[in-house]
Design brief:
16% strand; 559 residues; 16 helices; alpha/beta; binds alpha-D-glucopyranose; binds magnesium ion
């Protein structure tokens, strides 16, 4: 047996309508990240766009997700793929119009899908009106106070004001040329030079973001993904760190530009705004903090709703480590009564089949499917990144001339590897752009590999062994089973070394998930009726000796 479709489930349409009516929808939501540049290109310019997303909403509904998070589609020079925003209230023409965004939200809602948009409050684009004015109006001008402008060190101010490094490599400061042509002040940018950091001590910055929140809430969005949520407030006096290679500390040690206590006041303010709207509008923090406990602080009842669980994303394929991070995450979130979240991929990291495969693509996909089935069994909410439902690998062979990621050009930062997970999706057909754009042979902003014909949505649809049908089955089961979805704990069961097994109980049914993270089959008890398996079950059965859990495989049972 293949392990797929072993139990009856209500139709996705019925389930989705029920879910949409439910309160606390975000406590168990599966949220699908759309990276608009790479999802679907409606007009054939090689760049994905909002009408492209709108056309494919039925696909997402059929997949069985609850919500869509859209990476930035705002007016932007695209120095960092849209995370450099020039106008927070405008849609970049490359992605469409505000009317397209409006229609997208409406159509998503009609299909029972929620829409979360990206909010980038730590920095804007150097083409943002405020920053252009700050440059033009010169030192001492009020506009400069909305950013971090400082005189340089050294006799002629030729050295940066402190030793902070950009996350994309190089110094976090750039010196400007003043209106009179002289070499002048420096401004802070934790990311690319085209992304000046706002000074959140300035009330005008706070007021502007309140207005931006309301603008999108009024348009009907269900929430925000808060970019670099841990970065808004900087330690007073912008103190030196004292050594280089600061990136290596990311998410492990305190840094004066991250996770300062002052950020929480901002999120309490935003929560009041969110709660002022009907329906449950949410915010999810992208916060790389040193500990899960520090992340939980962003999720106190009067702050944000969720935070990405990067500790989980970065955990190795190892039973002990996985169990630890699961327990730790559930414990920390329970403290603040927030749902745990789980994530394996996004637009900033190497896709998980490649990450887990250690150079072996077949093993990587097998582990990725097992990891996904484990993630979807855990209590709380899960984030999917577009294309993972197709089992897409990281594209590792991009030529240098195709590269777009500013991290690649600035050298050290974030490994310069982020283009490889951003390659446009394959939808159909035998050759690039595989239905990403409307014309066979038409362009795509990053080249797609040869050999993706077998990974297209069209090729995988209806094939019960495909990764796409596996995701559809898993998401349908997750909705249907009473013990899956929201919750705050699991009950660990005895399992052989290298395996994890846990149970979840609800009033009207129990569930067991077991994972074998080793390369050899292991025996576990047969817990009940198999709902789904991440790989082919050859010797399934229970002839007294128990159940054979194949290598690198996850199995779900209804108990
Ligand atoms: C976040 C985004 C990333 C972006 C950075 C700067 O980490 O996920 O893509 O480059 O913020 O905005
Ligand atoms: Mg386009």
């Amino acid at each position: 047996m293949t392990g797929h479709h072993l139990a009856h489930v209500p139709s996705p349409a019925d389930q989705e309508r029920d879910a949409a009516r439910r309160a606390d929808w975000w406590r168990d939501a599966v949220i699908y990240q759309v990276y608009p540049r790479s999802f679907a290109d409606s007009d054939g310019d090689g760049m994905g766009d909002l009408p492209g997303v709108r056309d494919r909403l039925p696909y997402l509904r059929r997949l069985g997700v609850d919500a869509v998070w859209l990476s930035p589609f705002y007016a932007s020079p695209q120095a960092d793929a849209g995370y450099d925003v020039a106008d927070y209230r405008a849609v970049d023409p490359m992605f469409g119009t505000l009317a397209d965004a409006d229609e997208l939200i409406r159509e998503a809602h009609a299909l029972g899908l929620r829409v979360i948009v990206d909010l980038v409050p730590n920095h804007c684009s150097d083409r943002h009106e405020w920053f252009r004015r700050a440059l033009a109006e010169g030192p001492g001008s009020p506009m400069r106070e909305r950013f971090h402008f400082r005189p340089g060190k050294g006799a002629g101010g030729e050295l940066p004001p402190n030793d902070w490094e950009s996350l994309f490599g190089g110094p976090a400061w750039t010196r400007v040329t003043e209106p009179d042509g002289s070499a002048g002040e420096w401004y802070l940018h934790l990311f690319a030079a085209e992304q000046p950091d706002f000074d959140w001590e300035h009330e005008a910055v706070r007021e502007e973001f309140r207005a931006i929140l309301r603008f999108w809430l009024d348009l009907g969005v269900d929430g925000f993904r808060v970019d670099v949520a841990h970065g808004l407030v900087k330690a007073a006096g912008l103190p030196d760190i004292g050594h280089s290679e600061q990136l290596k500390l990311l998410g492990t040690k305190p840094l004066p530009f991250f996770d300062q206590d002052g950020v929480h006041e901002i999120y309490r303010d935003w929560r009041r705004i969110l709660d002022g709207y009907e329906g449950e509008r949410i915010a999810v923090a992208e916060a790389w903090t040193p500990t899960v406990e520090r992340s939980a602080l962003y999720l106190r009842p009067d702050e944000l709703h969720q935070a990405f669980n990067f500790a989980y994303l970065t955990t190795d394929w190892d039973a002990t480590a996985l169990r630890e991070v699961i327990d730790h995450s559930l414990g920390a979130m329970a403290e603040v009564r927030a749902p745990a979240t789980w994530v394996l991929s996004n637009h900033d990291v190497v896709r998980h089949p490649t990450r887990l495969g250690g150079g072996d693509p077949a093993l990587g996909l097998r582990r990725a499917r097992a990891a996904t089935l484990l993630m979807l069994a855990l209590p709380g909410s899960a984030y999917l990144y577009q294309g993972e439902e197709l089992g897409l690998p990281e594209v590792t062979e991009l030529p240098d001339e195709a590269r777009q990621d500013p991290a690649f050009f600035r050298g050290a930062g974030q490994d310069g590897l982020r283009d490889g997970c951003r390659v446009p999706l394959p939808w159909s057909g035998e050759r690039p752009p595989y239905g990403f754009g409307p014309r066979p042979g038409g362009p795509s902003w990053l080249p797609q590999p040869e050999g993706w014909a077998k990974l297209t949505v069209a090729a995988q649809s209806g094939d019960p062994d495909s990764t796409l049908e596996f995701y559809r089955a898993a998401l349908a089961q997750r909705r249907a089973h009473p013990a899956l979805g929201a919750g705050s704990s699991v009950t660990w069961l005895d399992a052989p070394a290298g395996a994890l097994a846990f149970r979840r109980d609800a009033a009207d049914g129990s569930f067991v998930c077991a994972v074998n993270v080793t390369g050899t089959p292991l025996r576990v008890p047969s817990y009940g009726k198999v709902l789904l398996a991440s790989a082919y079950l050859e010797e399934a059965g229970d002839a007294g000796e128990g159940f054979v859990l194949p290598a690198d495989t996850t199995v779900w049972w209804s108990v």
